[in-house]
Amino acid sequence: MLNVLVGVLPGGFMIASSIVVGSAPAAVVGGLGSPAWGSLVVAFAVSAGLLFVQQLLAPLSVSLGRVLKHQVDGRFHDQILAASLRSTGIAGLEDHQAAGDLWLAAEQLERGRTPGDAAAGTVALVVKYTQLATYTVLLGVAVSWWAAAVVCLVTMTFRVGHRAVVRIYTRLRPIMGPLRRESMYFRDLGTGPGAAKETRVFGLTGWLAERYRSSALAALRPVWRERRRANGVAFAWRTVFGVVMAVLVLAWMLSSAAAGQLSLTHLVLGVQATLGAISLGEFYHESDNGTQFGMQSVSALRRFQEASAALDAPQAAASTESAAPLLGGVRFKNVSFAYPGSDRLVLDGLDLTIQAGQCTALVGLNGSGKTTLVKLLSRLYEPTSGAILADGRAISSLEADAWRRQIAVIFQDFNRYELSVADNIAFGAVEQPADPGRVAAAAHKAGIDGAIAKLPHGLGTLLSRRYAEGAELSGGQWQRIALARALYAMDHGARLLVLDEPTSALDVRAEAAFYEEFIANARGRTTLLISHRFSSIRHADRIVVLEHGRVVEDGTHQSLLDQGGRYAGLYDLQARRFQAGEDIEGTER
Ligand SMILES: Nc1ncnc2c1ncn2[C@@H]1O[C@H](COP(=O)(O)OP(=O)(O)OP(=O)(O)O)[C@@H](O)[C@H]1O
Predict the structure, then answer these.
(1) Which of 96, 344, 371, 494 is disulfide-compatible with 489, CB 3.0–4.6 A?
(2) How many CA atoms lie within 13 Å of 459's alpha carbon, on the beta-carbon side?
(3) What number is the average pLDDT over the span 61-86?
(4) 342 CB less than 6 Å from ligand 1?
(5) Mind listing the UniProt keywords for this protein, alphabetically (predicted)?
(6) Where is 500: in which H helix or E strand?
């Protein structure tokens, strides 16, 4: 409503100021104090008043537009976070297309093309089109309706032209999107610290700069081509048409006034309305980009939400039973699994029981499905067929977050939070208030307390080089921090500890020592240790060998050696290499 008023006010000013000009000759003739002079003063006061109100309300309208933008954007940010942090599954985040849509939604926000801009831009359009409507009506009433129609047509022709240029970006989005994503990837690779070592060591810096340049140019060239086309001949035609029409209308008004068919007031009003309307045929900075692109992030987010919902198994969202503390073991019953969009069974009729109170080691070559098994256990994916039972209840029927509090999982690619050491450990049980004593105890159990003591602020040290007071840990120390996080979770009620390749950053001897120490400490706890190295986990209560998504051997270290099967073969191979002083890892990868 405010914007309608802001749109109408310039029309009011035009009327009042035209009356001022129209009544000036009579006022001059009548002199000071004459009725004509009085009318002139009233018209002048009204026009000044209208101008004043207009100057007062226009900034208010802009400010309210900004408030609207920030409110809409705030809500949208919440929606993006809520969509990407949905806790039922991660299939959408790991799917190329869906993840691309989520990236697009966030990227549009970073580029300042937000739903808030669309909302504020739409509201700002109300001002512009109310103005155009007002000028058209004034011209129609004061001069002629055909002149009003022509001027309105000219303005809209310019507007259509400007919008056509803006629309080019939307039309080319399917081509530009992947290219832009590629160029952003190369830019981030070149400017971020993560890849800095390798790009220099391998001499990739020149290659990186060239790939960034070529992919950025490939994304921009189609836009430049289309823009030249839209801004070239079509623009020239529109300009010629607009200028000719405007000149014709103005000339006609002048000749009518000269012939005495149009009063001075009507002439001034007609000229003002014509020029005012035509000046509205411009590009609207406050509206055009926002209304054209602002909703793209919304559509991209909707696509991501739909794809995630379709990719995640429906039971994941539906399960609501509360999870009782896990007392017995966990059983994988004939579990098969293929990643969404793939027919390949990564797990194929897997039968496995993780016994309570035992340390079970799961070994298998790269790609045999070990991490996938942990993702199913954590309910980040649901089995394609079969069931995972905890104390005899299908975990798919349990409320996902409640079930996850029963397990403490450290993935291979665990998170390194750029927060304090204490936070990194206490995230193991984030739903409970952090307990410094138990944090220190977990750090001690994970064998990282010595390294923490040497940090400038102990447990309070920020683990990030981005801060002056921050510190960086080695890969092996980070792994111990992650282990401390899992132990802290166990200390707060988690019943099953899962470590997926917890020692990949340790050297062979440190790894062997870690496993020996860990397995000894974990006695009596339900633990699942995952490794692709067969030699390290020989002290586990039980060793399960996974191959092509199935259990192929199951027993103690000694019984598996006696069987002389897969485990024995690979164990012997590693042991011989180790004795020969070669890198064990090299044999198996
Ligand atoms: N998100 C995913 N989408 C599609 N396929 C996947 C995905 N993650 C893993 N895979 C495939 O599933 C198979 C098993 O992978 P998984 O990570 O479970 O193996 P792994 O035994 O843990 O291997 P590693 O010892 O190398 O960690 C691999 O062939 C892999 O390519």
Answers:
(1) 494
(2) 19
(3) 91
(4) yes
(5) ATP-binding, Cell inner membrane, Cell membrane, Membrane, Nucleotide-binding, Transmembrane, Transmembrane helix, Transport
(6) strand 496-500
